[in-house]
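With this grant's support, the team has encoded backbone shapes as discrete tokens. A representative record is reproduced below.
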Amino acid sequence: MEITQRSVTSPKGDITIYRLTNETGASVEISTLGAGIVSVWVPDKEGNLADVVLGYSNPTDYFYDGPCAGKVPGRYANRIAKGHFSLNGKDYNLAINNGPNALHGGPEGFQNQIWTARVEGDSVILSYKSADGEEGYPGNMVVSAKYTWSNDNELTLDFEAQCDADTVINLTNHVYFNLAGENSGSVLNHNLWIAASKYLPTDDTLIPTGEIADVAGTPMDFTQSKPLGRDIKCDFAALNYGKGYDNCFVIDDWNGSIKEIAILSDPVSGRTLKVATDQPGVQVYTGNWLEGCPKSISGNNYHDYDGVAIECQGMPDAPNKPQFPSQKLGAGEIYKRTIKFSFLK
């Protein structure tokens, strides 16, 4: 494995981008800004390499971008209703940054911080220290994101975190995929399968109602692989609220072990992405609001539906929904979660 690095200056300090290239020439780039995935170059059925991750031409454009492209949001990914939760009988109020709700840990969340990094074997390990009270969350937290790239084109992301007080945590990666190539237009012809027979209905601000509903007979059913665009225009509440898919699916038979939970494929390039995780849910977001985001890494403009995010995570608003798997992290406990992206042709 060859690992190289380059740095650019920013108002918050230097951003370092690590490039990991395996023995086949396939590569990934990881940025210390938001512990982000900024490119993944993998072959198609003809062996031609292309970047299958949406990214920006300027490394500093990742600060405060609406799509949260490629980055690790935190301390709590996804939404918390009204920016409020109670823990151990104490109320906590968070920054409101998504309608009436808190999203992705707040405007100064993990995704907009420069993490420290070190190289260890075939891995890059990024770390961040989140102070007690930062964005309203309790406790001093130390978090790490370890990226490992293999000669089989598998990218493994291992999260680990500890806190000196009881807190809540939900970590994921918000990378957007387009298996035809990041500059190739809509992903609505991509086929998706999800190991989820249930999903979380939401209100019109995308906060889960608390119901865990069957996907059967609805446009939310991906238990058989189908094109992302087949049902996206259906008159269905979940699709109307988000202008497309932006919902959390509940993984079938979840028991905390790593299992394959999604398969995304592009019929044109022949590329396939398999996703495995030990997380209980996966948020599927079809890039419904990409219009107007920073210039693409190839110098073009991205448009709505040009990428799809498959965000393995805990349930949104779980701190306020006791029927969901708990996202509480006790003082001194160790939080560990894993996501694997395997690229095939």
About this structure: The first helix runs from residue 237 to 242. The two ends are 21 Å apart (CA to CA). The CA atoms of residues 218 and 258 lie 27 Å apart.
